[in-house]
Amino acid sequence: MAQTSILGRVSQLVRANINAILDDAEDPERMLDQLVRDFTNNIAEAEDAVAQTIGNLRLVEDDAREARSASSEWLDKAKAASRRADQLRAEGNATEADRFDELAKIALRRQLSYENQAASLETQVAAQTELADKLKDGLNKLRAKREDLVQKRDELVSRAKMARAQSQVQETLQSVSVMDPTSEITRFEERIRRQEAQVRGREEVAASSLEEQFASLEDDAAELDVENRLAELKSGG
User: Which CATH number covers residue 121?
Assistant: First the structure.
């Protein structure tokens, strides 16, 4: 039946290996969301089919009740016609009595027809009730499986996000290990040391020039003293 085929198709979604589907998916989260949507849509289709089955069952139940009621009504008419026939026959009116007996027979034929119809419909009611119960049970199981699927989706999406985060951290650590920052710091420190040494060199150069100038001054003073003493000697002092 259409209803059972729908439930079977939805069940196949549940039995599918989700992890195998995700292996080839470029975006597992989108794949899971689409899987949930497809499952939900199929359940909605199954719900409509089950509702239709239950609706048909209710119609058959109504028809069976009407047939049973009609059978009871025609039986009452047959009884009434038979009593009237007996009354007329007791009064000596055989002709009218026979007419009412014929009416009783007609009523009994109608009663029998509705009785057979009611029996047939009640057999259908029993069969369709069993089917509806199975479909409702299957539908409830599918709803429960959908909840499991949603929970599985949330779990897998969370795990995928954690895996991506861990992968990014590992890539960062690898890039840091490849580009060791201590080597850059060492080179920078060496450059500063050279600059500091150059400053000290300039300071020493400047200091050397001053010493030479002061030394020249001292030499000039000594030479002046020699000249003065020479002049004194010549003057006979």
Answer: 1.10.287
Joined tokens for residue 67: 């047939």
Give 222 or 118, the one with higher predicted confidence: 118
Residue 99 DSSP class: H
Residues 6 or more apart whose CB falls under 8 angstroms from that of 29 comprise 157, 160
Provide the domain count of the chain.
Answer: 2
Range of the domain at 75: 2-179
CA distance 48 to 64: 24
* Same domain, residue pair 149 and 186: no
Alpha helices in 16-93 (DSSP H): 18-23, 28-90
Q: In the predicted model, what is the mean pLDDT of residues 32-37?
A: 81
Residues of the chain with pLDDT > 90: what percent?
33
Q: Is 39 exposed, middle or buried (0-12, 13-18, 19+ CB in 10 A)?
A: buried
Predicted TM-score (pTM) of the model is: 0.56
